[in-house]
Amino acid sequence: MTTAVSGRTAATPAAILGIILASYFMVLLDNSVIFTGLPSIRSGLELSPAALSWVQDAYTLVFGGLLLMAARAGDIVGRRRLFRIGLAIFGTASLLIGLAPAGWWMIAARAVQGIGAAIVAPTSLALITTYFDGEARNKAVAWYAATAGIGASLGLLVGGALTEWISWRAAFLVNVPIAVALIVWSSTVLTETPRRTGRFDVIGALGATLGMGAVIFGIIESAEAGWGSARVQIALALGAVLLIGLVVHEGRVQQPILPLRLFRSRERSGAYTARLLYLGAMIGFFYFTTQLLQDGLGFSPLQAGLGFLPMTLVNFVVALMVPRLSARLSNGTLLATGTALTLAGMAWLSRIDPLDTYLVDVALPMILVGAGQGLAFGPLTNAGIAGVDSADAGAASGLVNTAHQLGMALGLGVLVALSANTGSNLDGPAAVTDHVGTALTGGTVLLVVALVVVLTVIVPAARHRSSGSAPLRPAP
Predict the structure, then answer these.
(1) Sign of the C-alpha dihedral, residues 213, 453, 415, 346?
(2) Cα 446 vs. chain centroid, distance in angstroms?
(3) Model pLDDT for residues 432-456, shown as the tens digit of each residue
């Protein structure tokens, strides 16, 4: 493995990749570690269903909304400097969450934590384009994508163990020493990247965050107030206006956080759309399957975390096979196969019944979902940065992560609203399985649309690019 900037650092490629993956893993781990602790958080802080959703959405919304600005900021102030600032914010917010005395405190601290994550995630992917080139970059991206899937799955186990053995608070407090260690480690492994002159597109960042926030607020509020509610309709209308204004603004400014030229590639545009849909379905899988295991099947938080092991282990093994599979199969083939497997597993699990058993009716579908996720994430990341100019590498990295996080925020909002009133006329496990089944059916629909996008947009565009275009240019 070779690095693109090996002359500027004595650190080995393995050490550089190690700190990049460790930081990204911490961010994604925290994104899913909360799920097995949700019932404890709900009872401990006395949260309503809508407020409980905001514990997750406050994080993913700010995370996704600020990603583009953070990716641009790294080019201006230096990626190592910004990387360490992001780690400090993330660690501090984790401490505040662990000490939260009330729901409003936790939601606010989760939003601050999203700021730190918004800095760390795109900067880590941009560091890959800085330090790795050629085949080494392809392998690093594969590991980065594998980390995305494995971090999300393993977070459930870690969260379950800490919640049961200590407290749900420990699942957040553990980030504090990890963040400190990564800050120290980065000072010895990474060197500062050259700065570029430019200005921050603050209006663009605010437009993206507030626009998506208004839309997601409207969707979540519809679960309790109904779609005819004035505040729901006003929020959705305001969100639409802000997002339209964002597009107009980005087309006029000289240094946008969202260069519209990135969407000229059908392959990249399809990848952003498919990623948003795919992650919208996956967040529903984690969120509602956790409730199924604990409230429907009577699992403890630790048992629920262990219950995801069939998915986690298969995901890990398949993700490690992707670099070798990519030498024989095209990116589009791997992506289509992974999406189809995830769809099959989600559809199977959505048929859950009160009399069903974990081993046959939950674990087996999880294996399909894990295999599909392991196959899909790497190719989906590659498609999101395919053919991008070096000057837009940071923005493309930010857009990949933006689609990832906003897909989760929107997906959770839609699926919570969709399943809000199901199971209300039932009791016990029957109510839980009806509620979860409706949500996972919605996730299945999202995956169907994602597969259509993959087959009709991404695969044809990738074939066209590979047959007549130059490969990805190395980063400066």
Answers:
(1) negative
(2) 16
(3) 888 899 999 999 999 999 999 999 9
Q: Which residues fall within 8 angstroms of residue 393, CB to CB, at 6 or more apart?
A: 126, 129, 385, 475
Give 424's DSSP letter: T
Closest CA to 146 of 309, 370, 359: 370
Say how far residue 176 (Cα) sits from the centre of its chain: 21
Q: How many CB atoms sit inside 10 A of residue 198's CB?
A: 12
Q: Is 333 exposed, middle or buried (0-12, 13-18, 19+ CB in 10 A)?
A: middle
Largest CA distance in the chain: 67
Q: Reduced to 3 states, what is the DSSP secondary structure of residue 50? A: helix
Instruction: Tell me if 360 sits within 8 A of 348, measured CB to CB.
Output: no
- Coil, strand, or helix at residue 426? coil
Across-strand partners of 132?
3
- Residue closest to 383 by CA, chosen among 280, 462, 325, 449: 462
pLDDT of 152 over the 70 cut: no
DSSP secondary structure of 203-252: HHHHHHHHHHHHHHHHHHHHHHH-TT-HHHHHHHHHHHHHHHHHHHHHTT
pLDDT band at 91 (very low <50, low <70, confident <90, very high): very high
What's the rounded Cα separation, in Å, for the pair 397 and 389? 12
Per-residue pLDDT tens for 345-392? 999 999 988 878 888 899 999 999 999 998 998 888 888 877 776 666
Distance CA 314, CA 146 (A): 12
**Residues 6+ away with beta carbon under 8 Å from 473:** 388, 389, 390
Give the C-alpha separation, 13 to 127, whole Å: 12
132 φ, ψ (degrees, to nearest 5):
-120, 145
Q: What whole-number distance in Å separates Cα of residue 218 and Cα of residue 213?
A: 8
Q: Which residue carries 């969709």 as its tokens?
A: 418
Query: Full-prediction pTM beyond 0.85?
Result: no
Please give the angle made by the CA atoms of 82, 261 and 133, to the nearest 5 degrees: 55
Residue length of the chain: 476
Amino acid residing at 284: G
Alpha-helix runs per DSSP H in 103-167: 103-131, 134-165
CB contact at 8 A, 331 and 462:
yes
Contact 213, 65 (CB under 8 A): yes
Single-letter amino acid code for the residue at 120:
V
Q: 304: helix, coil or strand? A: helix
